[in-house]
Give the backbone structure.
Amino acid sequence: MTAASARVLFDEPGPRGRVRIRVFTVLALLLLAGLVALALRQFARSGQLGRSRWLPFTQLPYLRFLAEGFVGTITATVLAAVVSFPLGVVLALGRLSTVRPVRWVATGYIELFRSIPLLLLIYAFLLALPRFGNNLPILWKLVVPIILVNVAVLAEVYRAGILSVDRGQFEAAAALGLPNGVAMRAVILPQAIRYVIPALVTQLVALLKDSTLGYVVSYRS
């Protein structure tokens, strides 16, 4: 985002505004520290901070169990993200395509999988598909449903980013004689992705939280 567009989207505060921001920041930090101190005091009064409560976290078998869960969560999240984020771009371009069959298929997929609860889809891979001879490994019984749902959500995020790019960018690329595919790849998509980075980070966090549904398929996460 250029400095000019940043100034349009955000009015830089003046001296008084900066002072107010600092004051409110300090007050918010003090309030947060007070809440943390109050919570710790309540935990201490109820015995939740006692040594016996936290001793298991120092034992090797317990730490190994937590480490296996951590590795499982990261593995499922990375696999789902590596597949979902590029496919989201492809699906977004499909929905914006001028070829009607492609646009209809992409739109149908997005609307379908955005409306299906992820938990229901996981149960389908766990209970329904094995009856038809399609019994995936435990990891993929979790990862594939996450991919199917997140691709549809990410496609809409990318599509919103593409549509938010100024129309003049399309016209400038056409004036330079760039084919539509090259213009989209070299001019439009880089700008669109920058616009939607906050939404992509939010979706990555949501994807990480979705991996906790691994308990449904007995996957350690």
